[in-house]
Write a structure and sequence with these properties.
It is an enzyme of class 3 (hydrolase). Its EC number is 3.1.4.-. This is HD-GYP domain-containing protein. Keywords: Hydrolase, Membrane, Transmembrane, Transmembrane helix. There is one protein chain. By secondary structure, this protein is mainly alpha-helical. The chain has 2 domains: about 230 residues, no CATH class; about 190 residues, Hypothetical protein af1432. It is built from 20 helices and no strands. Helix 2 runs antiparallel to helix 3 and helix 18 crosses helix 19. The longest helix has about 35 residues. The radius of gyration is 28 Å and the shape is elongated.
Length: about 450
Amino acid sequence: MEGPRRRSLPWGARAVLSGAVVAAGACALPVARGNVPWGAFGLLAGLYALCEWPARCPFLLGRVTVPTGSGSFFPVLLAAAFLLPPAAAALAAVPGALLGPVEQPPRSIRRLWRAARLALAVGAAAEVHQRLGGRAALGGPALAPDFPYALLPAGAAALVFCAVLAALDGLILWTAERLPARTAWRGLFPRSLAPYCVHGLAGLMMAVLWRSPYGPPAALLVLLPMYISCWVFAQYHRERAAHQATIRALVQAVDIKDTYTRGHSERVGLASVLIARELGMDESRLEVLRFAGILHDVGKLGVPTRLLRKDGPLTPQERAVIELHPEYGHEMVRGIGFLGEARAAILHHHERLDGSGYPYGLAGPQIPEFARVVAVADAFDAMTSTRSYSRARPVGAAVEELERCAGRQFDPAMVRALARALDRHGWHPAVTADEPDRGGATGSGNVPACDAAPAGHA
């Protein structure tokens, strides 16, 4: 995250922003003393600004895709850190940082923050590179670069660049978002280290070619693969946004049709991910599992609305119609390729461990893993949510009920994982109570989860 989300900044975030701007100004101030290779400075500063410009240019908007905050052009900044004095390198980051696109307001504050943090990071990287003799190791028109030594100051500079950005990002999260300190900085540096080391290598290649007999034009060749990677990254995010939009549209359709369970889908997705993390499930599967939790009841779109909203008990024939919703849902999402394992969870989330569930009466390990996770998350949220036909149970009471039903209806491993996750993280989703209690409505009310009617924990 590059800056605060709120329009009104807390005083701590204002102090951090002001301090960063003052520190960046002090870092760039020695430029006024001269001894700056203005030609190289102008080319590098202009090149970085040109890389950031297409996303805001009205003529190129929509034709050239540049994802914000991707860092795809950081090699230009690191090349500036390797080629320029620290003050000039810090200043070279400012025009592009101010020119780059910002998606969320307040835009002027975010641009200022981005410019300050990049100037400090590039200035610190240039200082480390210079002190380790990195510039001499780059060689020149008549001197070969000093490899492998040149890798040492370049690697140290990339490390410092990464550390400064991670420290500043954590600081703004702590002050602006008011996250706990451990949460604000957790994982920022390790997640960024590998990408920034790659940026450092690309920046070193640019700097070596810049100082070679071929000059700056040869250095520009390094940007071609970086721009291609930027385009691929943008395409990935565009596809991911389309997936999210598909999921959101389906969930909204279900919420409109079945107002009793509004918000239920998102909470089931959240609880499913809690269980999966506790089980140590691979990170690559978590998003698909979240989709499974969110879309588990999408088949309700094929169930008559009068049955979903019926007051009083369901007849056996009506119950049989409602029990078709997993198959309806599976048919609806059959052609959505990115859902993967989620499709099986949508079809089988009402199966029971003892084989008494539906639609196919699967038992034990025959039930897909995702379906066993979603079944526990589904029942847990149903018991802890206030609806028109039932009052919310305390979290502890819901967990006890799940444990009582473990082995018959629910997978005991999934129930234990949820209990451990709740002990560790708690349960604080937004509580929805869409309509006042109207008396005997469809569902199970406060009967135990093991004995609930099929519509009861939908």
